[in-house]
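Translate structure to sequence.
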């Protein structure tokens, strides 16, 4: 079973643990992920408000690459995206250009400058979790469990982009109160807690605009999960993970609370349940330590990675332009 794979920018950097655990879990399940060659940023959530043509050309370039690179299943290339924002942008763009000929023409005119063209309807965009629960199914996932997560109380957090807006053709059971992630976690043996705010927004980039608003939104989520005595919040979105993890201490200072909730990707929990090595799943990279939660299932938290070296200070009077440096590859294969 093979799928095209669009990791997106976050999984190359701040959400590297999501990419690591996705590839490890896919391999354990016998799923081949063929990374799209030369993919580019999906534009995140803001670019569409600045330039419609630019935004759709940016997204459409990835669709055009998928059309030309990936094999067809039932007449369509299938592209899996783990990031909820990437999934929304790709699937929404595909839907709109398939239903609005003028937009498709506008986008393809821009793509032609780079020698590309996209045929609307030729790529099916799927979220990773949708692929796992729909194509493989809960029984296949359950059959791989070697270390049941029965000692963990897990709050399933979908975020606001995974289920809304509901794109035609995507298997979301309920846009406002979905249950497919709950069921996946149940298949891992986890004690899945009721989480009424499971589809509420984490604030997105609000932390860069209004700290008070961001703190309020994050506080609601953390308090709700804590009220239901969750050990962990499991998410399928890099932005949600980043906000709840990186700004949890800021929320505690603002509200004089003491939240200590680790925020992990659902793929990390799958890997743990499958008996995979914790370090290989990116555990230890989270800012709010999962050490106490992992101890409940007999897993030691790997040591956090060393802090990156600080860049050298420029000499006084140095007016030379900073030059780009080639980044070291993260040491993983391009396919799983």
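Result:
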């Amino acid at each position: 079973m093979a799928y095209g794979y669009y990791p997106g920018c976050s999984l190359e950097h701040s959400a590297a643990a999501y990419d690591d655990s996705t590839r490890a879990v896919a391999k354990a399940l016998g799923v081949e992920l063929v990374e799209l060659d030369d993919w580019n940023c999906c534009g995140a959530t803001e670019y569409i408000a600045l330039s419609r043509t630019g935004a759709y050309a940016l997204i459409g370039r990835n669709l055009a690459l998928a059309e030309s690179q990936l094999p067809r299943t039932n007449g369509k290339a299938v592209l899996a995206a783990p990031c909820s924002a990437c999934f929304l942008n790709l699937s929404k763009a595909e839907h709109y250009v398939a239903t609005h000929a003028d937009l498709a023409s506008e986008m393809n005119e821009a793509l032609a400058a780079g020698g590309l063209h996209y045929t609307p309807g030729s790529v099916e965009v799927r979220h990773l979790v949708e692929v796992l629960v729909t194509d493989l199914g809960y029984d296949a996932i359950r059959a791989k469990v070697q270390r049941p997560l029965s000692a963990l109380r897990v709050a399933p957090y979908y975020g606001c982009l995974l289920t809304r807006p509901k794109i035609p053709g995507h298997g979301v059971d309920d846009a406002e109160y979905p249950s497919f992630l709950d069921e996946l976690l149940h298949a891992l043996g986890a004690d899945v807690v009721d989480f009424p705010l499971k589809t509420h927004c984490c604030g997105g980039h609000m932390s860069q605009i209004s700290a008070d608003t961001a703190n309020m939104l994050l506080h609601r989520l953390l308090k709700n999960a804590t009220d239901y005595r969750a050990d962990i919040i499991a998410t399928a979105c890099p932005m949600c993970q980043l906000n709840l993890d990186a700004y949890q201490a800021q929320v505690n200072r603002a509200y004089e609370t003491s939240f200590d909730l680790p925020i992990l990707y659902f793929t990390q929990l799958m890997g743990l349940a499958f008996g995979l090595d914790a370090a290989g799943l990116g555990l230890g990279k989270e800012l709010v330590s999962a050490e106490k939660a992992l101890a409940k299932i007999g897993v030691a938290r790997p040591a956090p990675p060393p802090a990156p070296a600080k860049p050298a200070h420029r000499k006084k009077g140095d007016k030379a332009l900073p030059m780009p440096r080639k980044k070291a590859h993260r040491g993983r294969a391009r396919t799983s």
